[in-house]
Amino acid sequence: MEAISKAKFQRYGSRKVGLLLDLVRGKSVKASQGIIPFSGLRCSDMVQKTIDAAAANLQVKLGTKLDLSKIYIKEAYSNMGPMKNLKRIQPGPQGRAMPFKRNICHLTITVSDEKGEHK
Fold this sequence. Notes:
Elements: E1 2-10, H1 14-24, H2 29-35, H3 44-62, E2 72-80, E3 87-91, E4 97-101, E5 105-112
Antiparallel strand pairs: 1-5, 2-5, 3-4
């Protein structure tokens, strides 16, 4: 059985979150708890919370308490979120305004109680 957890409108770049997701994709939730804190990325707390939420969703679906070493991360990906809301202006040289856009991503994690091929 599978369960999904999503974290939307997070203020991290989708490529940087993707680097962390590549480390944990296909591993168990228990193994990811050992990897993520030592990655050194700022988005690690958000990714860990989403993985924990997906594992809790799976336990609720099954109706039983499962060992975290028997829950595997089947899919983990991050997509780019909207850019229209967080356009900002930064001061530039000679009084100019230099626009920049804040990065936003949507994170989706799917966990399963069966070890299988990850995508």
